[in-house]
Amino acid sequence: PHSGPSCLTRLNPGSLRSLAAVDAPATFLPGSPWVELVVSAAPTLDRLQLAILRPDVQNRWPEVFARLAEALVEARSLNLSVLEIRGLHFPVSCGGFLSSVVKACSRTLRELRVDFVDTVALSSQEGTGQVEIDDADFWEALVQVPSLEALHLAGLRTSPRTCK
User: Fold this and answer.
1) How far apart are the first and last CA of the chain?
2) Closest CA to 80 of 52, 53, 51, 101
3) How crowded is residue 1: how many other Cβ atoms within 10 Å of its Cβ?
4) What string of pLDDT tens digits covers the 164 residues of the chain?
5) How far apart are CA 110 and CA 127, in angstroms?
6) What does pTM read for this prediction?
7) Cα–Cα distance between 103 and 43 in angstroms, integer?
């Protein structure tokens, strides 16, 4: 779509049940314009899908995850039951954000899909070669989800030491 991000703010969030932002500029532009819509639609929003599949903007994931975590924590009476996040390269630095996202919607979450091709380090400080996310908090957050019915994880390089 070529519409500006301001079009999102004109939608009626009071009845929005499903929001999918797939390679939409509003997903990866600085400031993440979709966040306000998620916060205001929280009481009715049942399904949220965020996907960044364009190779040239994979480096935007840390900000997207940070804004998503903030939005879900800020949202009042969150009723999100399905959360799907898709991309090409999951940044190793985003493991903490992923656990924050799960914690924020743990009361109502039934299905979680995190679908990436691989896990990568975006900077040399994050390591090189086969990197792993710090996933102890993520698994702990999942354990606290009482109604989880479906879990799909692809491309996340988790630690073999976490759940022994």
Assistant:
1) 46
2) 101
3) 10
4) 445 556 656 666 678 899 888 887 777 777 667 788 888 888 999 999 999 999 998 998 999 999 899 889 888 788 999 999 999 999 999 999 999 999 999 999 999 999 999 999 876 665 555 688 888 999 999 999 999 999 999 999 988 877 65
5) 33
6) 0.87
7) 17
Instruction: Give dist(CA 69, CA 149) in Å, integer.
Output: 22
Q: Which of 101, 32, 22 is nearest to 9 (CA)?
A: 32
Q: Using CA atoms, how far apart are residues 132 and 121, in angstroms rounded to an integer?
A: 9
What angle, 0 to 180 degrees and rounded to 10, lies between the N-to-C axes of helices 95-104 and 136-143? Answer: 10
Output the CA–CA distances (angstroms, integers) from residue 72 to 53, 136, 148, in the order listed.
Answer: 22, 21, 18
Place of tokens 């040239």: 56
